[in-house]
Write a structure and sequence with these properties.
Number of helices: 20
Order of helices and strands: HHHEEHHHHHHHHHHHEEHHHHHH
Radius of gyration: 29 Å
Helix content: 40-55%
Structural class: mainly alpha
Largest sheet: 2 strands, antiparallel
Distance between the termini: 91 Å
Mean pLDDT: 78
Strand order of the largest sheet: 1-2
Low-confidence stretches: 179-187, 340-362
Strand content: under 5%
Number of strands: 4
């Protein structure tokens, strides 16, 4: 046999082997076995539920479930992530998160992530916290550079930069709002720690132990004004008369650490963490002896940074419901305008009927 023929046969053999491996991976992918195992377990559970069912309606629903589980459809499951294109035009770019293809058991995921049950995985996916390559379907490739556990996620925080990167990624992935007043600002992301958990508010007293001496003028001014803002709000006629939904709008900005899902907050008034974010992050850097990294976080929202800390509360339409209340019911306009506001700024020249003196809603 000539050398040319030998080379031809060797190359042909290699091509055949590589093609066979490719076809096997294409038509019998590794991720499919995870879905098969999941559906088999679900089928056994559904059969037991069917046997235990009493009512006809319940049996009917379970029979439909059994039919689908006996003929499962194995498919790539993915979360379409917002990319570089316009989300409002339903263009998502090339970002996807396919972790759910293998990690298909949602109940198991919830059980293993008890502290992040409120994290919007359907928007941000898994890799934003865990790292890895969310687009990959090969297990080894998908898990490359991945942070498996909470401890590993936290250990990468040797500086504030990983946290900034995490918040930046959340900003990129957040869907656009057509109404600019409803857009999720960068400041909102500060409620998430790098693990995806909601950061813990430690209370202003912990901050003041050091900062009463370190930043005395700033602290004293804030304690005198912003710390007490909710005291004034609670006495306002519209807050007293308002229902729960009305008061929520007040609580969102006039308390610290307000959680819209639970209705709870950390402290009344705009205290330290109201602007600087949950103290857990600062405490972490203090504990590892890197207070200067915490200082970087404290400067968020200052001139020259892309983080909008003030905007979510300090925009023009936040008090629109108050304006409407006083126009409809009347009352002393001092409750609508802050105490430091002058007639020159508001356009008011005298007190009287609030419905006449208050500006119009456009």
């Amino acid at each position: 046999m000539s050398i040319q023929r030998l080379i031809f046969f060797i190359l042909s053999g290699l091509f055949f082997i590589s093609s066979s491996l490719w076809l096997k991976e294409e038509f019998d992918p590794k991720w499919e076995k995870y879905q098969k195992e999941y559906y088999e377990v679900q089928l056994v559970k559904a059969e037991k539920e069917y046997e235990a069912a009493i009512s006809v309606k319940e049996k009917e629903l379970l029979s439909k479930k059994l039919a689908s589980l006996r003929r499962p459809v194995y498919a790539v499951k993915q979360v379409l992530l917002k990319g570089d294109y316009s989300w409002s035009k339903q263009q998502n770019g090339d970002k996807v998160d396919r972790c759910m293809t293998c990690h298909i058991d949602e109940e198991a995921l919830k059980h293993s992530h008890p502290m992040v049950k409120d994290f919007p995985f359907d928007i941000y996916g898994c890799s934003v916290c865990h790292g890895g390559i969310g687009r990959a379907l090969d297990e080894e490739m998908a898990h490359e550079g991945m942070y498996y556990h909470k401890r590993q996620m936290i250990q990468r925080m040797t500086s504030a930069d990983p946290l900034f990167k995490f918040w930046d990624e959340l900003a990129i992935l957040t869907p656009e709002e057509t109404d600019p007043n409803l857009r999720t600002d960068m400041g909102d992301f500060k409620k998430y720690f790098i693990t995806g958990e909601k950061a813990i508010y430690v209370g202003s007293q912990k901050c003041l132990k050091c900062h009463t001496g370190l930043t005395s003028p700033h602290v004293e001014r804030w304690k005198r004004i912003k710390f007490k803002t909710f005291e004034h709000v609670k006495e306002a006629p519209d807050y007293i008369a308002g229902n729960e939904e009305y008061r929520k709008k007040c609580l969102k900005c006039h308390t610290t650490g307000y959680d819209e899902t639970t209705g709870r907050y950390s402290e009344e008034g705009v205290t330290c963490e109201g602007c600087h974010g949950a103290g857990e992050v600062f405490s972490y850097f203090m504990d590892i002896g890197k207070a200067m990294e915490g200082q970087k976080l404290a400067k968020l929202g200052t001139f020259g940074t892309p983080y909008n800390i003030c905007g979510p509360c300090h925009h023009t339409r936040n008090h629109e419901m108050r304006l409407k209340f006083f126009q409809e019911r009347g009352g002393d306009d001092e409750w609508f305008f802050p105490q430091h506001t002058t007639p020159y700024k508001t356009g008011l020249t005298e007190k009287g009927d609030a419905s006449k003196s208050l500006p119009k809603i456009y």
